[in-house]
Write a structure and sequence with these properties.
mainly alpha
Amino acid sequence: MALSEQYQQQIINTIKELPEDKLAVVVDFVTSLKDEYQPCAAKNIVKLGGLWEGFEPTDEEIQEARKEIWHHLDTKTTR
């Protein structure tokens, strides 16, 4: 008997020994495990090719944008 078959049989035997009111707990737990290890649904990928084409900010523009963002974040957190 393969190892996974042994585990399956051990799980089944253990479940058979449980009181009926604990079976719902087992089902919930096994369902959560199954959901945890299912592959994620495919996500829609939005291609942004060309969105920034021709946009080449200078170092000064980047520094200014960072200052604005940090200032905005600072004013949000101090409210």
